Automatic annotation (TrEMBL):
Keywords: Hydrolase, Signal. Residues 1-18 form the signal peptide. It holds the Pfam family PG_binding_1. It comes from the Bacteria. GO terms for molecular function: hydrolase activity. This is Cell wall hydrolase. It comes from Fictibacillus arsenicus. InterPro entries: Cell_wall_hydrolase_SleB, Peptidoglycan-bd-like, PGBD-like_sf, PGBDSf, SleB_dom1. The lineage of its organism: Bacteria, Bacillati, Bacillota, Bacilli, Bacillales. Residues 28-81 form the Peptidoglycan binding-like domain. Residues 99-197 form the Cell wall hydrolase SleB domain.
């Protein structure tokens, strides 16, 4: 995951590069947007003010720490990229595992990270989750739902190394799966309604 982030920062998409370097003393819409993102993810407490003070700095540092970034309290390109990646993953987790236990949510996040680390899959979150037919939630629109706080927490737990799937790169509900190919994958474990496989 750290190698992915280093490579990803070298080739930042234009939308991420468009963000200014935000730090203590800055104010405006970009700061409000940052505060709201951090609030949604459980790092920023209090009202969104648009002022980057010590509370925002602390929230950024906490986010950076949980995301395995340098915790300097400055929101730069790597921080904005990671905010975007976490948001994408949380949307998939929420859409795919909304009715599952917490460990089931962490498992879905772990599968995304395992795919990034597997040479048979793309090496970044966006391409992994938008791969054709990879995630039902992306295909059927559940990806557009607002993630729960549990979805964000599950993503951070997976990023910290919790993988209840033991390296699985697939999962499916055996009662609902219609593509017989998935049944050819080696099952690793069952969590809730999902079988996890390699």
């Amino acid at each position: 995951m750290l190698l992915f982030l280093f490579v990803a920062v070298l080739f930042l998409p234009t939308s991420v590069q468009a963000h200014s370097l935000l730090k203590v003393g800055n104010q405006g819409y970009e700061v409000s947007e940052l505060q709201q993102n951090l609030k949604d993810m459980g790092f920023f407490y209090g009202p969104v003010t648009g002022y980057y003070g010590p509370i925002t700095e602390r929230a950024v540092m906490d986010f950076q720490y949980k995301s395995n970034l340098s915790s300097d309290g400055v929101a730069g390109p790597a921080t904005f990229l990671m905010l975007n990646e976490v948001e994408k993953m949380a949307r998939v987790v929420h859409g795919e595992a909304r009715g599952e236990s917490y460990i089931g949510k962490v498992a879905v996040a772990a599968v995304i990270l395992n795919r990034i680390d597997d040479s048979a899959f793309p090496d970044n979150v966006g391409d992994v989750i938008h791969q054709t037919n990879a995630f039902t939630a992306v295909h059927d629109g559940q990806y557009n739902l607002e993630p729960s706080s549990y979805a964000y927490r599950a993503v951070f737990d997976a990023m910290q190394g919790w993988d209840p799937t033991y390296g699985s790169v697939y999962y499916y509900n055996p009662d609902l799966a219609t593509n017989t190919w998935i049944f050819t994958r080696q099952s690793v474990t069952k969590i809730g309604n999902h079988l996890f496989a390699r």
